[in-house]
Write a structure and sequence with these properties.
76 residues; 0% strand; mainly alpha
């Protein structure tokens, strides 16, 4: 069973909160409220990007380690 990263859970929660009907209605009150909802979406997008960058970093590390093992240059 795979685990879902906490950053993605928080991002989905923030997106759900920003799109909740009462929050969407609240966001139309003033420009400040609207900006706060956009802030929630900005944070959610940032968390999603952070998680994607982490996965890319891990993938590159695994690829590099596999190449080093193939070349026989790994010293352990």
């Amino acid at each position: 069973m795979t685990r879902v990263p906490l950053t993605l859970v928080i991002a989905l929660f923030l997106i759900g909160t920003a799109n909740w009907p009462s929050v969407a209605a609240w966001a139309e009150e003033t420009n400040l409220h609207h900006a706060l909802v956009h802030g929630l979406l900005l944070i959610a997008g940032s968390l999603f990007g952070l998680q994607t960058a982490w996965w890319m970093h891990l993938n590159e590390s695994e690829t590099w380690a596999a190449q080093q093992e193939e070349e026989g240059e790994v010293t352990s």
